[in-house]
Amino acid sequence: MSIVPAQGAPRWAKSTYSAGEGQCIEWAPEHAALTGEVLVRDSKIPHAPYLTLTPASFAGLLALAKGSRLT
Description:
By secondary structure, this protein is of the alpha+beta class. Helix content is 27%, strand content 18%.
């Protein structure tokens, strides 16, 4: 038998590069560390549904964002 700790709402983190512009995504690093799933949401709509990504997909999203290839 395994005991899984109860999980409440994810704690969201925002990039320090966002500079308060409101054009950013947030992710839940603690959830990712516990489960291997990377939760991502739009910071402008915090109560909207979020995406669940694999670590590889999240890395790809970050690479796109860093390369400014998103519009």
